[in-house]
Amino acid sequence: MARKAKASKPSANGKKELLRQTMLDAAAKLFAERGFAGTNLQDIADALGTSRPLLYYYFPNKEEILASLVEEVTVSSQHQSTRIAVSTDTNPGETLRFMTASHAKLLLDHAVAFRVVDRSEADLPAAIRKVHDTAKRAVFDNFSSVIARGAQIGHFRPVDPQLSAFGILGMCSWTAWWFKPSGRLSLQQVADGIADLAVHSVQRQEARRPKTSAISDALQILREDIDHLELVTKSRSG
């Protein structure tokens, strides 16, 4: 008779990381409720039912917690969007869809942490603020570059890449404030819905897209537009 496989126990490092994440989540919740300035380490220790020395072992001060939240949300967003931008360059529409859905899902998975970081930007120490700002700019640049590339090859309309990126990132960010897990739509459905809106906001009609990036294909669409304009002009003048 075959023996049942024993469930693997988490390693010592795994337990430490789990405890650290539990502390980080508890701190983020208190920061969201009371504000960064209105919360101290004793409050966090009390909420966890643990001692301050144990909390100090992982986070010697509040600023270290804030830095970890920036790492969890903003820096992770940077790494994720960069990875998508450089690894998928075939179809800009699908790249933008995947990048947007992934970004929205990351923010929704860390909604409380994101709200804390967003509200606490003015409280970030200079070094942490620099990391935060650099990561935010990289995310923005990644979205802008994908949109610019799509517009350049005629897959997207000739939209302003920066304006479009701001709009899409704004849609993603706002979900962290209104989404409720008990709501009508699941987290994944919301992320996919935001991604669909993002693509449709910039995408060119199928018939209006050049078949290739060759100038001749773009010129062919332009000739068709001119021919159509001439027909409309003749019909009205006649």
- Global morphology: elongated
Order of H and E elements? HHHHHHHHHH
Q: Please identify the structural class as seen in this structure.
A: mainly alpha
Q: Count up the helices.
A: 10
Helix content: over 70%
Q: Segments where pLDDT lies below 50 for 5+ residues?
A: none
Taking the alpha carbons of the first and last residues, their distance comes to 92 Å
Per CATH, the architecture of the largest domain is: Orthogonal Bundle
CATH evolutionary superfamily of the largest domain: Tetracycline Repressor, domain 2
Q: Explain this structure to me?
A:
With 238 residues, this protein is an all-alpha fold. The protein has 2 domains: 46 residues, Homeodomain-like (Arc Repressor Mutant, subunit A, Orthogonal Bundle), CATH 1.10.10; 166 residues, Tetracycline Repressor, domain 2 (Orthogonal Bundle). The chain is 74% helix and 0% strand. Helix 1 crosses helix 2. The mean pLDDT is 85.
Outline the secondary-structure elements.
Layout: H1 12-34, H2 41-48, H3 52-58, H4 62-87, H5 92-109, H6 111-119, H7 126-152, H8 161-178, H9 187-202, H10 215-237
Key phrases:
74% helix, 238 residues, mainly alpha, single chain, Arc Repressor Mutant, subunit A, Tetracycline Repressor, domain 2, 10 helices
In short:
This protein has 238 residues and is mainly alpha-helical. It has 10 helices and no strands.
